[in-house]
Structure formats: C-alpha cells, structure tokens
C-alpha cells in the first residue's frame, strides 16, 4: 500500500488525505503558511484550476502563467515556490497523495506528465463540468466526517476529465508509443541516481536504441540522454533548495556523478549558472 505522505494537519477528511482551497474556504493560517517557507518540495499531487482571472505558479524554477479555464498540476517531489501575492483570480486548489490516488478505480497517466506539459486549457463545456465537480468536492469537504467514498467518486470523475483534456491536444501520439515513453519515464525516475545507460533502458523496454530515441524525441522534444541530464539537474536544484548546507561534492555523489568537477560544468551548461551562484541566489 502506498505510504501516506500528506501532512496530517492539512487533511479535511477523517478518512482521506485531501484538501481543497477556494477564495472563501480552506486557507491555512498565516502561522501554518510561514512554517512551509517560501518554497516547498511537494509530498502530494497539487491542482490549480482558474475559473476567472489569472494566477502564476513557479515549479522547479519555471514560471507558468495560468489563465481563465486553465488548470495547472504539480507532482510529488517537485519544488513549488509559494505565491508571495494574492491571486487575481477565482480558483480552486486541490491536494491529495498517492494513498488517496490508490483508492480510485481509474488510471490517470497524465499524472506522470508524459508530454512535459503541466498546464491544460479547457473549452467552455469541459470547464463547466470541471467547475461543477470542484464545487461539489468543496461542499463535501466542508465537514471532516463526509463519507470518503463520495469524495473518491467525484475525485475520480475530476481526474478522468483532466486526463482526457491532457491528451486530446496530442492525438498524433499513438497509444503504443505513449506506453513506451511512460515506461521510459518511470525507469528514469526509479533509477535516476544510477544514471542508467541508454542501451540498458532500451533493452528493458524491448526497443532498439534508435527506437527509444525516436519515441523520447517525439514526446519530449529531446534525446534520451538530454532527458536524463535535464532530470538530474532538476533533481540537483530540488536538493539544493531542500538542504543548502550540502557541499557540491556531496551533491554530485548523491546524484551518481563520480567527478564533481564534471557535475559542476554540466550544471552550468544546462542552467547558465554555477552551483555556487545558484546557492547564492537562494540566500538573497
């Protein structure tokens, strides 16, 4: 069974790890917000749906503008920078963890973000359905003793709608290729700090190296090697945020680099900044 990673003080239901926030409901106290600091490495899934207006999210150092009828989602372990100003929007936010997700009957591959697209736009009819479902979840979570099965039913409906919208703009991707790409992403996540060889990954997925290259390039826009490098640098930035006392040498070894000097050069090549400069930016 998946480990419950949702902070106990945040859950709005006695039987589920879930919380919803809207302009009028669900906000944590200023004292609790201060406890999390300016950035948080997410231990759960996070959704933001904007009904009207606009909002801004910063995830893994990337700023994403979210407008009317758009949904932003973030995944466990991503680094989310908390907003310093109020939203100029009418919105719903929803958080839930893997334990909650494991109790749903549906499967939602969008939560693996295979297309590297964390913002989804909805046409008016789908947006209306989404808004109605969010509103129902909001009402169900007004009290902590609501039957969890009711909440799960609407959460399943919500994620089904989002999953369909995520893939509808990418019909050119065949199901078979997408499955292979999901397999590639999962393998990379499970073995990231081992820095697996491309030939090893291709063999595990029953593909040729050329076949793996074509599939990863099709879905991500980069080669398998570039994909792994980018993911390692993102992980490096997350770990720096999490523990700013870690030395460059320690960080390099944690991520599977035998040569800290090579790791430092790679970090600068990808980010345009030295690791020391990145540390310095965080301290400002």
UniProtKB/TrEMBL annotation:
Sorted UniProt keywords: DNA-binding, Transcription, Transcription regulation
InterPro entries attached to this UniProt entry: Homeodomain-like_sf, HTH-like, HTH_AraC
Gene3D superfamilies according to UniProt: Homeodomain-like
Domain HTH araC/xylS-type: 182-281
UniProt cross-references to SMART domains, sorted A to Z: HTH_ARAC
SUPFAM superfamilies: Homeodomain-like, Regulatory protein AraC
Keyword Iron included in the entry's annotation: no
Keyword Transcription regulation: yes
GO molecular function: DNA-binding transcription factor activity; sequence-specific DNA binding
Listed name of the protein: AraC family transcriptional regulator
Organism of derivation: Pedobacter ginsenosidimutans
Classification lineage: Bacteria, Pseudomonadati, Bacteroidota, Sphingobacteriia, Sphingobacteriales
């Amino acid at each position: 069974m998946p480990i419950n990673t949702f902070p106990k003080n945040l859950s709005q239901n006695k039987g589920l790890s879930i919380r919803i926030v809207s302009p009028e409901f669900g906000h944590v106290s200023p004292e609790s917000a201060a406890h999390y600091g300016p950035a948080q490495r997410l231990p759960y899934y996070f959704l933001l749906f904007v009904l009207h207006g606009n909002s801004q999210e910063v995830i893994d150092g990337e700023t994403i503008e979210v407008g009317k009828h758009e949904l932003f989602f973030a995944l466990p372990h991503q680094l989310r920078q908390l907003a310093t100003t109020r939203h100029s929007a009418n919105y719903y936010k929803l958080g839930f963890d893997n334990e909650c997700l494991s109790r749903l009957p549906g499967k939602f591959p969008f939560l693996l973000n295979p297309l590297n697209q964390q913002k989804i736009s909805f046409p008016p009819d789908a947006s209306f359905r989404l808004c109605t479902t969010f509103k129902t979840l909001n009402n169900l979570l007004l009290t902590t003793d609501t039957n969890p099965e009711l909440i799960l039913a609407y959460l399943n409906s919500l994620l089904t709608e989002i999953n369909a919208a995520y893939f509808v703009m990418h019909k050119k991707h065949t199901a078979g290729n997408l499955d292979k790409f999901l397999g590639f992403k999962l393998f990379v996540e499970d073995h990231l700090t081992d820095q697996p060889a491309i030939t090893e990954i291709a063999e595990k997925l029953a593909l040729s190296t050329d076949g793996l290259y074509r599939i990863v390039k099709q879905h991500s826009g980069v080669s398998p090697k570039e994909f792994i490098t980018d993911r390692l640098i993102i992980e490096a930035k997350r770990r720096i945020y999490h523990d700013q006392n870690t030395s460059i040498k320690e960080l390099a070894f944690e991520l599977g680099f035998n040569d800290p000097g090579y790791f430092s050069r790679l970090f600068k090549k990808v980010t345009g900044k030295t690791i020391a400069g990145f540390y310095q930016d965080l301290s400002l």
